[in-house]
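FAQ: What does a ligand-bound record look like?

Like this one, built around iron/sulfur cluster:
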Amino acid sequence: MKGELEKNIVKRIKVNLDKCIGCRACELACSVFHANPKYSSVNPAMSRIQVVIDPLNDEYVPIRACDYSKAGCDGRRVYTINGKEYSECSFCGTVCPTRDLFKEPDSGLPLKCDMCEDDPPQKEPLCVQVCQVGALVYEEEEEEVEEEVRPDEMEIGLKSLIDKYGLEKLADTFARMSQKV
Ligand code: SF4
Ligand code: SF4
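The answer part, i.e. the structure of the complex:
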């Protein structure tokens, strides 16, 4: 959904591919922060950042979960950066059916990076704070952007359930459950 221009703080995490050593501390920190209750368990499968590792090629690519898509794309491009070849999927944070990344292990619902929304706010996202080699760099910039309502993780989860079961079945289930609470 798009609207008028407004001043907004745009948050970014830049990745320095040459610095990442594949230690996976970022995955641990993200999963601990998003455990329910917070900090109660460590499960890297729940992390909104995953490091794609190809040790034979000396490739370590941290990617963060972004949008959900009910279909996979046909992008099969190969990128060459500093003499190394990377597949297009290595840089893609889309939660799609062609791979298992960024899906809650029990429910299969899509995960999404929230830049560590917290109250009070974190000074930097958790994954950036624990990356000791500076492979993740946090930046904030004030920009005039088109007002946009971005779906949160619950909305994305509901969309994936609608894609899987259909709106009618889901509405019936909600109606049945609401009579029990
Ligand atoms: S913490 Fe930093 S160095 Fe370790 S895997 Fe994550 S991005 Fe790479
Ligand atoms: S910014 Fe926060 S939510 Fe996003 S990947 Fe990093 S630790 Fe996880």
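Follow-up question: can I read anything off the structure? Yes, for example: Residues 2-150 form one domain.
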